[in-house]
Amino acid sequence: MGNQAGLFDGVLRYQKCKMLITGQSFYDLIVSILECVCSIAVFLAVLIYFPDKPQLPPSVSASSDRIDFKTGMRQLLRHWSFWKISISYALALGISGIWAPLLSFYTLDLISETEAGWLGFYGSIACGVAGCIFSRFTDIYARRQKRVLIFLYIFSLCACILFSLECIKRIPFHRGILYTTYIGSTASLQGCAPLFFELICETAFPIAEGLTNGIQTWLNNFVGLIFLLVFLIPAIGNSSDLQWMNWTMVGATAVCIPILLTYKESYNRLDIDTIVVLNDETDAPNSFAEIPSNNSTDGSQPVA
């Protein structure tokens, strides 16, 4: 709600200045007003109705105790796997979140500002669809998030390189290539967000999910802020050549791939939630047993 209110205030100030200069009206504010009102309505509905927790825990790990805030923070400072995932997420997606809306700046020589707006719109829709598809895929094929993330980052890197080369006219301009590379690059990156949030919770468990996701989101916003502050450097912000943004996006994505390769997967929550139903004729119909680990000390073998 605060984000939408701030956005509304910024648009309002811009439109006031625009009206004073050009004499145009406030009709462009309708969309921002609707977004702000909807955000306030949803916030109030959650505040009034939404319960603190479900009546029954959705999984075994959901009912497990979490480490307290201070202890969890100290453990995260030494949790290298957590930082590898967080940096890979924040570096690429933090810059992408600022780079994508500025599309019209670095495509001025190729397409009009209006067409750039529509291309950004198509990219935003593709990001939402990609996030749903990737999330569903990893639900079906569990314990493969790392491979999926590496594949998507490599695909995004290749698409972003082609897009950057077309923007500087090193390859012949083709509208289809421009659309495909931009949408493919942004969708494959932004669609990774649900996978990162899920994987970081798995890695850091039993540290509270609110703490891990909060730090991850803060890092993402911090990287985006640093990217925006670069425009305050006169030699960069006042330059007419803004192609450096494309190559910054390429570099950020490329740096994250080796970081992901060194990450060692761990699914602490999933290990707890993985159970085997023993439904033999001689057993109780609702008896459950946890899958034994391979290094169990009682000599028992894992259940097939």
Short overview:
The protein is an all-alpha fold and 304 residues long. It has helices at 2-22, 30-49, 69-77, 80-99, 103-106, 113-140, 145-167, 175-190, 193-204, 209-229, 234-237, 244-262, 268-273; strands at 275-277, 288-290.
Give the tags:
single chain, 304 residues, mainly alpha, two-stranded antiparallel sheet, 13 helices, 2 strands, 2% strand, disordered C terminus
Can you give a write-up of this model?
The chain is 67% helix and 2% strand. The protein contains 13 helices and 2 strands, in the order αααααααααααααββ. The protein is globular.
Helicity, as a percent range: 55-70%
Strand coverage percent: under 5%
Mean pLDDT: 76
What is the general shape? globular
Task: Kindly name the structural category.
Answer: mainly alpha
Output the number of helix runs. 13
Cα(first) to Cα(last) distance is: 49 Å
Question: In sequence order, what are the helices and strands, one letter per element?
Answer: HHHHHHHHHHHHHEE
Radius of gyration: 24 Å
Poorly predicted sequence stretches spanning 5 or more consecutive residues:
19-24, 276-304
Order of strands across the main sheet: 1-2
Largest sheet entry: 2 strands, antiparallel
Number of DSSP E strands:
2
